[in-house]
Amino acid sequence: MEIRAAAPRRLIVAITGATGAIYGIRLLETLRRLGGVESHLLISSAGWLNIQHELQLSKEDVHPLADVVHSVRDVGASIASGSFATDGMVVAPCSMKTLASVAHGFSDNLITRAADVTLKERRRLVLLVRETPFNLAHLRNMTAVTEMGGVIFPPLPAFYNQPASVDEMVDHTVARVLDLFALGPALSRSWTGLRDAQP
Ligand SMILES: Cc1cc2nc3c(=O)[nH]c(=O)nc-3n(C[C@H](O)[C@H](O)[C@H](O)COP(=O)(O)O)c2cc1C
After folding, report:
1. Residues in contact with 164: Cβ distance below 8 Å, sequence separation at least 6, in sequence order
2. What's the gap in Å between 20 CA and the centre of ligand 1?
């Protein structure tokens, strides 16, 4: 049997059409800053609408943030196969439509196919689901993904760390998400008790 070198660390990042495109962008920026992880980027058409509307960014701004950019239509791409090793996948933000597709194994594009592969290979899948309020279909779909081993991670801001800006709230969420992949030393500060946290 051929002995191969360890696979490089790789993370798939998908941005779909829920509000909160900044989460996916900040994730890519953080991975780039940390180094050592090959990022594979996917952006749905609705994801692009939100990137342009919320952040006024173009493809020329966003594509260089990733190591590899895939077309959502390219269901023959490397990440469509379980034989291509990755550390997992984050969908940030994740629309209710993409959540529903993942929950039902409906792999109609490369985002939902890559998520399906991540689950079948028992790799980490984290969905930053974003909608409010939730209907029963949303809640059932979140349950189904959880039952399959996925992590439902709504990007809800924390206030215990007394954030001074929206940027700090976003950074905190992104650090917590990346810590789920144990890519290196923890990015988020661990809570050591209320007494330590007093100003
Ligand atoms: C400005 C804007 C904001 C949206 N926000 C949300 C949202 O927060 N959550 C959601 O589930 N869908 C939201 N949608 C609807 C999705 O974009 C739509 O359902 C789309 O089909 C999702 O496709 P995708 O998952 O392939 O990106 C929004 C659409 C627009 C244009």
Report:
1. none
2. 10
Nearest protein Cα to ligand 1, atom 17: 17
163 sits in the region (left: phi over 0; alpha: psi -120 to 50; else beta) called: beta
Distance CA 195, CA 199 (A): 9
pLDDT for residue 1:
59
Domains of the chain: 10-179 (3.40.50.1950)
Pocket-testing residue among 13, 15, 19, 23, ligand 1, by greatest number of atoms within 8 A of Cβ: 19
User: Where would I find the beta strands (DSSP E) of 23-75?
Assistant: 38-43, 68-69
Query: What digits encode the pLDDT tens for the residues 164-197?
Result: 999 999 999 999 999 999 887 777 877 778 777 6
- Give me ligand 1 centre to Cα 19, in Å: 7
Dihedral sign, CA of 50, 158, 168, 40?
A: negative
